[in-house]
Specification:
This protein is of the alpha+beta class. Helices cover about 30% and strands about 30% of the residues. It is built from two helices and nine strands. It has a five-stranded antiparallel β-sheet. It has a four-stranded antiparallel β-sheet with strand order 3-2-1-6. The radius of gyration is 29 Å and the shape is elongated.
Length: about 180
C-alpha cells in the first residue's frame, strides 16, 4: 500500500484563531474606553478649577470693595485671564485663566429685560473696552454692582463659563450657582 505524503503532516497555521481575535478586540476596546473616560474627567476638572477661580476672583473683588472702603474691579480679558484690582491702584493681581467659552447675560433695569451675549467679544463690544479686549465688573463700597456703563441701568446678571453659571443679584452683588 502506498502511503500518501502529507496526510500525517500538521498544517502550519500561523494566523490567529477567532477566539484570540475577539480577546484582542475586547482589550483594545477596554483601553480605548478608559482613555476616553479619563480625558473627559481631566477636562471637566480643568473647567471646574477655572470656574472656582472665577468665583474666588469675583468674591475677592466684592469683599475688598467693602472692607477697604473703595471700589474694586474684576477685569476679564479676551485672552481668558482675569484680574482683581483696587480702584486707584495701578497694580493688578492675576486671579486665574479660563480658556473656555464665556457667555454673559445683562439686565437692563429701566427696560426690565435681559440680553444674552454669546461670546466675550460681543460683550466687550457692547459694555467693555473693545480695543483692549477687557470687561470691567466694578463693585461699590457696599459690595453692590455698579452699572456696566456710566449713566446706564444695565447690570451683569449671569456669567457663564462653558456650561457652568453664576447668577448675580446686582442689588447686593451676591451670586449663587442655582436660580
Amino acid at each position: 500500500m502506498e502511503k500518501r505524503q502529507g496526510s500525517n503532516k500538521k498544517l502550519n497555521n500561523s494566523g490567529m484563531t477567532l477566539v484570540e481575535l475577539i480577546i484582542v478586540i475586547a482589550i483594545i476596546s477596554t483601553v480605548t474606553g478608559a482613555l476616553i473616560l479619563s480625558t473627559g474627567i481631566v477636562e471637566k476638572s480643568r473647567l471646574t478649577n477655572a470656574f472656582n477661580k472665577l468665583q474666588s476672583a469675583y468674591s475677592l473683588s466684592r469683599t475688598n470693595s467693602m472692607s477697604k472702603s473703595a471700589t474694586a474691579d474684576l477685569v476679564l480679558r479676551s485672552d481668558g485671564k482675569y484680574y482683581y484690582c483696587q480702584s486707584g491702584s495701578e497694580e493688578e493681581e492675576k486671579m486665574g485663566i479660563a480658556n473656555y467659552s464665556m457667555k454673559f447675560v445683562v439686565y437692563d433695569e429701566s427696560a426690565n429685560k435681559e440680553t444674552t451675549y454669546e461670546s466675550f467679544e460681543k460683550m466687550a463690544e457692547a459694555y467693555g473696552n473693545k480695543t483692549a479686549g477687557t470687561i470691567t465688573i466694578r463693585f461699590t463700597r457696599s459690595g453692590k454692582l455698579e452699572p456696566l456703563k456710566d449713566g446706564d441701568d444695565v447690570y451683569l446678571s449671569q456669567m457663564w463659563l462653558d456650561d457652568k453659571v453664576m447668577y448675580i443679584t446686582y442689588e447686593t452683588g451676591k451670586y449663587s450657582l442655582e436660580k
